[in-house]
Structure formats: C-alpha cells, structure tokens
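User: Structure please.
Assistant: Input sequence and predicted structure:
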Amino acid sequence: MAADFTPLAREVAAAGFHDVQVDYTDVLGGPLPWMIASPSPLFWRAVFAADRIWLATPGLRTLASQFAIAARR
C-alpha cells in the first residue's frame, strides 16, 4: 500500500515549517539487517543496489519501507 504523506506534511507546515519535502529512503536496506546476519559485502551491495533501483522506479518508490521528512523553519 502506498503511503500518503499529505497529512504529515500539513502538520509539519502547521507547526511553522516551510519547504516540506518527503522522500523515500529504502526498501530492504533498513529492515533486512535486523532479519539476516550476513558478513558478505557482496550481499549488502546487492541489497542496496536493489533499493536504489526500487526507489528510482515510479510507482514502486511509494511502497518503500522508510521515509525521511525535511523542512525549513
């Protein structure tokens, strides 16, 4: 399910912030290390490459597992 950050962005703006931006940060790279203990650098490079591809794909990026919100005061 795609996340709708409009209500959150409105709350941030109502708190006195402007230039509110929401961006998706990762799909697998955040939660996966908590589930899989792999010392393989190749494995983690592949995971983060998959994240970059996912986040660059319109329609898929909104299904990301984490997001960041930034604004100016």
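The mean pLDDT is 89.
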